Amino acid sequence: MSALPHLLLEYAMSAPNALANQTSPYLQQHADNPVQWYPWGTEALQLAKQQNKPILLSIGYSACHWCHVMAHESFENEQTAAIMNQHFINIKVDREERPDLDKIYQLAHNMLAQKAGGWPLTMFLTPDDHIPFFGGTYFPPEPRHGLPAFNEILQKVAGFYQQGQEQIQQQNTALATALHQYEHLASEQQANISATPLHEAIEQLSENFDSVNGGFGGAPKFPHLTNLEFLFDHYWVMQQQGKAAPETLEMALFSLKKMVLGGIYDHIGGGLCRYSVDELWMIPHFEKMLYDNGPFLSVCAKAYQICQLTDRVEDAKLFKRVLQQSADWVMREMQSPEGGFYSTLDADSEGEEGKFYVWQQEDVKQLLDEETYELFATQFGLNWKPNFEGAWHLHTFRERSELAEKFNLPIETVDEKLDQACTILFKQREQRIRPHRDEKTLVSWNGLMIKGLAMAGRVLGRDDYVQAAQKAVDFIQQTMWERGRLKATYKDGKAHLNAYLDDYAFLLDGLLELLQTDWRNQDLSLAIQLAEVLLADFADPEKGGFYFTAHSHEALISRPKSYADESMPSGNGVAASALHRLGHLLVEARFYTASEKVLNAAWAHIEQLPYAHGALLLALNEFMNPSQTIILRGKPELVAEWKAVYIASAQPHQVCFAIPKQLEDDMPVVRQTQADIVAYVCTGMQCDAPITDIEAFKQCLKAS
């Protein structure tokens, strides 16, 4: 009988924990840990309170390299697990499924540690009120790089919880007060909304601009795609007003070009990695996130459009190639057979970061003929020293125009040979063991990709991109739209978790972009329903703006309104832009009034640090300088003809909805016509006389 406790302990250490039945791939990755993990929920929270044990909250995601490292070093270690199980109730959270928890505890970490957090996030919470009293990110198994050993942290935190209750209570009270004050940092009265933050943001971005390598700030370097979109839009507005700002355009184009020529971009398969570990954009953190690549398509589409309008022929070719390659990657590797888009590709394969993507010089030589190899090696630095752990990760050292001059070849020949080389290497790379793919579908991230594909399809004339976006919309509506509300996540036939602000805002934004590309009544109907839920379930009726969680959401230690951009655009900023456009399309005052209320509520935040609020700056730019909105109505063949005329000369600060007559039934859009074709052209609240002659329509577009 004396062996029984030991046998029970062995069984407990080997049995799956409470994560085994979760839908999140990240949580499933930890189901066999000896740590007795729980998902966030009533069971774990009540257990912590009953046993008076602090909560160890660990937040990460499936493609996170350092999450894998800490899991292998600590969570798979039986000695570490025994300490965790003895002293704590251990809760594992997928930050992609529960961004509400991640936002709150990242902010709390920032307040406690006075520095930015990240993933994995490791926080220790009191069991009664779930307020953190200590935390950090990655902790190693033994002391290194100035970080204490994780086991040492566990022992000290457990001891401090037992001995320092008075100090913990005082600190928790102060933190709760700080979180409350942060929540309510808002304009107490009607803000004096002006263009001042737009110009201040340009100055701040200029100060942080890397004029040698592009981008903003030093290593590690993130794409900051919303800032690039803001720069493009601000440039075009200034251009229309006769206030040329070429430095704004150069800053955006130079940065984007350096990214797509750098190693953060996958030159063989398409798609953008999450960030670069160096200031040259040479070596990325190799994970690919859907939430980066949706905005990446949008920004590349705008760059291509602007380069065409400003006669930058070679840059237009570059952005077109990148746009096509990346959209093809999304459809090939990230879209499920059901229609929704998967979430991420891991940084690691075969246990090594970047192994899927890097090359050996001799392998490339064997795949290409001599002339093509010389071109390829010169472009991507294979004649230089290895740049990633004894191998070569592709980074552009010479542009194609430079290669044409160096090798005395027509640019068409260079393009043909390098495109062929990339195709050969792609086929070879497809035989490798692939990185893990997180196959859950998130509405918010899908909304970003729907927008990106819709824009790519429109500027490139690619119906397959548009159809892929529509397929994703149909999937969401069929599987994740229940009783007039969205579910946030879907995997293995199960949609669950009530959706967040970003889900509604990003999908609404994507639908409005898709409606410009190919009008479907069901998309407008869904867009209106999403907008109504935003106003009913998320809006602050007193101070304006939108909470990140719905009014019916579980009570947490904080209920933030997200104004600054983080790894994704601000949900409030995207909602403000989308509601403004929808309000003008439908002539519905409630929607564009709600948009203005967002700006008013966020004004104190925007004024503090304008350039950190890129999505809100886009909304502010739209509020101060409304887009020209064009609505085409009439016979299908004439609508298609006029739409083609518009697309050929379309400008970034224009919006066009082409609605064939047979789709007019039961539509809430008020502009209807008995004519064969008519164009309604409005800027803000002011509309020109209806246009029924195509030559007059062309002249109107030229004058814009």
Secondary-structure topology with pairs:
Layout: H1 4-14, H2 25-29, E1 37-39, H3 42-51, E2 55-60, H4 65-75, H5 78-87, E3 89-94, H6 99-113, E4 121-125, E5 132-136, H7 150-163, H8 165-183, H9 196-208, H10 225-240, H11 246-261, E6 275-276, E7 284-285, E8 288-289, H12 290-309, H13 313-334, E9 344-345, E10 348-349, E11 352-353, H14 361-367, H15 370-380, H16 400-406, H17 411-429, E12 437-438, E13 441-442, H18 443-460, H19 463-479, E14 481-482, E15 485-491, E16 494-498, H20 501-517, H21 521-538, H22 571-586, H23 589-608, H24 614-624, E17 628-634, H25 636-649, E18 654-660, E19 677-683, E20 686-687, H26 694-703
Parallel strand pairs: 1-3, 2-3, 17-18
Antiparallel strand pairs: 2-4, 4-5, 6-7, 8-9, 9-12, 10-11, 13-15, 14-15, 15-16, 17-19, 19-20
Helix pairs in contact: 5-7, 10-11, 10-12, 10-24, 12-13, 12-18, 15-17, 16-17, 18-19, 18-20, 19-20, 20-21, 20-22, 22-23, 22-24, 23-24, 25-26
Structure description:
With 704 residues, the chain is of the alpha+beta class. The chain is built from 26 helices and 20 strands. The strands form six sheets. The chain has a five-stranded mixed β-sheet with strand order 1-3-2-4-5, with helices on both faces. α10 (225-240) runs parallel beside α24. Mean pLDDT is 93; it is low at 1-14.
Number of helices: 26
Number of strands: 20
Structural class: alpha+beta
Q: How many strands, which pairing sense, and closed or not: the largest β-sheet?
A: 5 strands, mixed
Overall, the morphology is globular
Helix percent band: 40-55%
Low-confidence stretches: 1-14
N-to-C CA distance: 88 Å
The strand line-up of the biggest sheet is 1-3-2-4-5
Average per-residue pLDDT, rounded, comes to 93
Radius of gyration: 26 Å
Oligomeric grouping of the chains:
single chain
SS strand fraction? 5-15%
